[in-house]
Amino acid sequence: MDLGEVNHQRIKTNGIWLHVVEKGSGPLVLLLHGFPEFWYSWRHQITFLASHGYHAVAPDLRGCGDSDSPLSPSSYTVLHLAGDLVGLLDYFGEQQAFVVGHDWGAVLGWHLSLFRPDRVKGLIAMSTPYYPRDPAAKPIESFTGKFGDGLYISQFQEPGRAERAFARYDYLTVMKKFLLINKTDLLIAPGGMEIIDHLQTPAVLPPWITEEELQVYADKLEESGFTGPLNYYRAMDLNWELCAPWQGAKVTVPTKCIFGDKDVGFDSYGTREYVQGDTFKGLVPDLEVVILDGHHFINEERAHEVSQEIITFLQKLSVE
């Protein structure tokens, strides 16, 4: 698609350089991508938001795209990531921003809203709800205990393991396996199999993405590698330790959640029941939940509907 004129720049924040793409002027909207993506996942929303009077800023999060990629997984905690974003807000001279996140970008949006609600005017979280911290068990121990070593999160823990498995395929095939997931169950490989081998490569592309767009992802991942994005998973237990002071805390900023009804685990893992239930509403009191017909990468698959949901939310908060 034609993005028109966008501004690329590298910004020093929190001791690293982040690459950001921006377009438009007006209230700041941060667009935070997920795994295994970079700013390009917001190509549809960047132009849409700019044309509606907003300053759309889509960073490559640390470890991804053209941003710096620290080596240690311990440099990828939600505190590091939130610090990166506060630095971006300061760079642009904005006290507050609207925050839109998908997948790991949603995790980051939840935690920025938890840590610094004074800097978040409103949050839109896609595909990943806010889960309360379990005070009794670290997440990896809990996940592996429930689902075994075949769970993708468990397989991503050991440095080098997933990288070696991914390397058996070309980058375009790896991106197709992830971006075109149409499984609705959790991503769990059979015993003795790596998750990348378990994922299918569709023979026919869905209508919402082209071979050329997939190649953009593949080319960028070939440049940057997968270790940075995988380090987000490798920092999950450290996140659990560091977030202990926020045990039981609520996310109080105005929030809209957007989910695809065919997302991984949405029904089989109980996500639908959770996000429509009282526990989630208790943790996120100012909450609106929207469920669309679609899969995990809902901001791309349902680009127009998602853009409309974003703009409706931003406009509502702008007049309140």
Task: Describe the model.
The chain has 320 residues and is of the alpha/beta class. 40% of the residues lie in helices and 16% in strands. It is built from 15 helices and eight strands. Strands 1-2-4-3-5-6-7-8 form an eight-stranded mixed β-sheet, sandwiched between helices. Helix 1 (43-51) packs parallel to helix 15 and helix 2 (78-91) crosses helix 3 (104-115). The longest helix is centred in the C-terminal third of the chain and has 17 residues, at 303-319. It starts with 6 loop residues before the first strand and ends with a helix. The mean pLDDT is 96.
List the helices and strands and how they pair.
Layout: E1 7-13, E2 16-23, E3 28-32, H1 43-51, E4 55-59, H2 78-91, E5 97-102, H3 104-115, E6 120-126, H4 139-147, H5 152-155, H6 161-166, H7 171-179, H8 195-198, H9 211-224, H10 227-234, H11 236-242, E7 255-260, H12 271-275, H13 278-283, E8 287-292, H14 298-301, H15 303-319
Parallel strand pairs: 3-4, 3-5, 5-6, 6-7, 7-8
Antiparallel strand pairs: 1-2, 2-4
Helix pairs in contact: 1-15, 2-3, 7-9
